[in-house]
Amino acid sequence: MHPVRWLFGLLFLLASLALAQPTLTVLTHDSFNLDKQLLALFERQSGIRLRFLKGGDAGEMLNKAILSKGAPIADVIYGFDNTLLSRALQADILQPYRSPELASLRPDLLLDQTFRASPVDFGYVALNYDRDYFKGKPLPERFADLASPEFARLLVVQNPASSSPGLAFLLATVAAFGEEGYLGFWENLRQNGVRVVSGWSDAYYTHFTRAGGDRPLVVSYSTSPAAELYYSEAKPKPAEPPTANLFLPRSSFFQVEYVGILKGTRNLRAAQRFVDWLLSRPAQENIPTQMWVYPARRDARLPEVFRFAEVPAEPARLSPQQIAQNRERWIREWTQVVVQGQSAEAVKARR
What we know:
alpha/beta
């Protein structure tokens, strides 16, 4: 065969193979991260090219998926949690898929019995404190203590209308204080000088004292102290993190993150293979030090640093049904009390 014709034939074959290789678009929240070599290995073994589309905070990401229903902007969505699960299911944007890997997951994470949302990881939205600031000073002992004068202007939280951890913390207050008490607690927090910001990054990296801010108490995650130690550049490396969890009873909210296949995908088989892989042991064991949450698999090993990622003894939980029925009202009432300055009693009287 003539060399030129042979070369053109080879180029045509390579182009054909590239076109045949499906590209799978995965819509994620901004905190999604996995090891690049691990992702490349999946692509080589599966023949599937991955494209990740960052969609903002979990709530913002889900809104984008709902707004594009019928003409989905992705094939798979990852990162909506149990505070948003009911919205995803009610919007009917997901199609069922019962992965064979589900049998290896923790059964308490399987909250969707229609198999449209598969649990990938879990964690706890929790109060963190700056060890240096509180050295020799008392810490709050009860949830209600956060609103006491001795802890005035020490706490920064996220707005539940725009932030996933902010919503989780609001739900923790509902679980802890009940329908009749949670607004009064927030009114007391407002009067005690709580600072409200739009999202986690602003709270942790701007206002928390560890980042040079003036708030030594922050709503974050129970894994944050472990992450602080893992990324520490101090020489020698400290024996313990500079931050710690403040596990006041029922102040930490149990959070589960899910993956689902979007209705209308043209890459169904590729989407199923990606879900299977995300729930497989290699991917699950990569999750802890990439996204600082616990893997959903029961047999996934945790890294040594996760001994500082404590688990609260009394986490707050609400069922997806409770959240679905009340989430928007709770956010609206919170906004009226905390942002608009209305009294808790006046807001409750209008129910």
